[in-house]
Write a structure and sequence with these properties.
2 domains, globular, 14 helices, D-Maltodextrin-Binding Protein, domain 2, disordered N terminus, 358 residues
Length: 358
Amino acid sequence: MNHTVADSASTRAPLGPSAPLVCARPSWLLWLAFSLLVACRGEPTGAGNPAEKSVVSAPAPEPAADVVVRLGYQKIGPPFLLKARSESLDRRLTTLHAKAEWIEFQTGPLLLEAIRARAVDLGYVGETPPVFAQAGGVPFVYVALDPPAPQAEAIVVPKASKLQKLEDLRGKKIALNRGSNVHYLLLRALERAKLALTDVTVVYLAPPDARSAFDTGQVDAWIIWDPFLAAAELAGARILADGVGLVDNHLFYVVRREFAEQQPALVSAVLEEYRQLSEWAGGHAEEASKILAASSGVAYEALLRAERRHPYGLLPITAEILTKQQTIADAFQRLELIPHKIQVDQAYLPAAGYTASR
């Protein structure tokens, strides 16, 4: 047991008539003890003048570490281009005591899983991945989008394929990336052809594996987006149908919800850089494609084809856009491709959303 001064005092014998009288020590002994204490400790110079006393300063606080903004991107669109031309963004973030970290993903679903894991703060994905992500409990919010790009995704078949129209897909094997934008294109294409999902065999493959399966004849058709689409065309694939008249194929900017709530200024700064670069790329397709080709490994010709059919500009999230996303979500829920109904507007945070006035 730890004893305090009070504990020790409480164990002393009480004073009373039967207690022996303890005589006081001479005062000179107290004076001697005080003198010895001062001699051991030393008297600071100028003790009589408070202004002359030595003052030990507290250590200066460490400067706050820069906030790291983790940006997820794919091989298309302003985020991919901005990574290669990030000087302006770096300067802007420096003024906000932040810095960017870039993380590449093959597909939107993988990027949104990284948001779930708190490994990405802001990403760029197609219109379908957020639906699957919200159904799976990923904490993200929509903050902006690109104009529609229905020509930037398509159902392709081998050049010599006998498939000529959507109705010909009955009984065929179709490769696509599960939960990506092309997944909704499949649903709309089958609806147009009056076919059910059970009338075809869907083979879920990531783009590299799907390309291999397509080239070797293991599947009859492949539904894919740019620049993989453009690369397949250049290699001889034929477009059976693109998204025109079927889907909008919006690309969305999504943000981890906690980051959007805590760092709205950083979200706004990154979106403004995307907007400026998007406007530049809209009038400089050749130069943008050369920059991307140098940093991506994708052929310049494929990137140029993709850039020329990709509309640029940054748009705010509106009630109309949320309604369209709800339509996509309801379609997947009816087919039990997502486990339950979701309310898309619950993934929208007005305070963090991009506005045209920014």
